[in-house]
Amino acid sequence: MPRDPTPRDKRAIRVDLQHIADMVDAGSRVLDVGCGDGDLLDYLVHFKQVDGRGIELSQAGVNACVGVGLSVIQGDADTDLAAYPAGAFDYAILSQTLQATRDPKGVLSQLVRIARRAIVSFPNFGHWKLRWHLLTQGTMPVTPTLPAPWYATPNIHLCTIRDFIDFCAVERIAIERAIAIDRLGQSSVIRSYRHANLFGEQGLFQLSRQ
After folding, report:
1. 3-state secondary structure of 122
2. pTM of the full predicted structure?
3. Cα separation, 29 vs 9, whole angstroms
4. What pLDDT, on the 0 to 100 scale, is given for residue 5?
5. Residues 141, 134: contact at Cβ < 8 Å?
6. Which CATH number do you get for residue 86?
7. pLDDT of residue 8
8. Distance CA 116, CA 24 (A)
9. Given pLDDT bands bounded at 50, 70 and 90, which one contains residue 14?
10. Other CB atoms closer than 10 Å to residue 9's CB: what's the count?
11. Whether pLDDT at 162 is above 90
């Protein structure tokens, strides 16, 4: 199917996705893992002229992507990344999906194997509002970044920014860039892990294999 000649409006992209897009070099080879309905991939193809591919678990997401001409296949990050050769991409992106994988350690290992750089974002379960909610309410929080109740959430491996940083150190994954994103979508470079863990609603990291 030919691509729709009119790209999606640049202003329509989600703020956290814009921060990810800003990390990607123009003209690079990109794999968007868990690409959803393709908003980020579509933006990268149109505005960064990347050679973009996607993998998405839901058939509805795949259909939405293919419907606008994106190269996306149905697949599972937990099992299908192993099929890609080492260094096949310049960037492998995992946006707001890590916490829903069955084997986050294995997925991250595959990302830095198949791409020169991995870009990973996730909701920070160490944010002060989540801590306060647990302390005062005693129930699992529901927030814009964690919108489903505990019994219906796909998230099975929630972590904090500090958890992720410690994990990368143990697994010898280099953190090239580390950004905290607040509730307004404003980003700040992580200099104090303690501060970022308290006030960042999302963590965004650019990684590579050491």
Report:
1. strand
2. 0.91
3. 22
4. 43
5. yes
6. 3.40.50.150
7. 54
8. 12
9. confident
10. 8
11. yes
Domain with 161, as residue range(s), is 10-209
Looking at per-residue confidence, does 13 or 108 come out higher?
108
Residue 145 belongs to some domain of the structure? yes
Buried b (16+ CB within 10 A) or exposed e, 15-25: ebbebbbebbe
Residue 2 has pLDDT above 50, yes or no: no
HSE (CB half, 13 Å, CA atoms) of 153?
20
* Environment class of 163 (CB within 10 Å of its CB; exposed 0-12, middle 13-18, buried 19+): middle
- Kindly state whether residue 4 falls inside one of the protein's structural domains: no
Q: For helices 15-23 and 39-47, what crossing angle results, to 10°?
A: 40
Residue type for 142, please? Answer: V
CA distance 130 to 53: 35
Residue 6 has pLDDT above 70, yes or no: no
- The pair of structure tokens assigned to 110 is 């595959």
Domain assignment of residue 5, yes or no: no
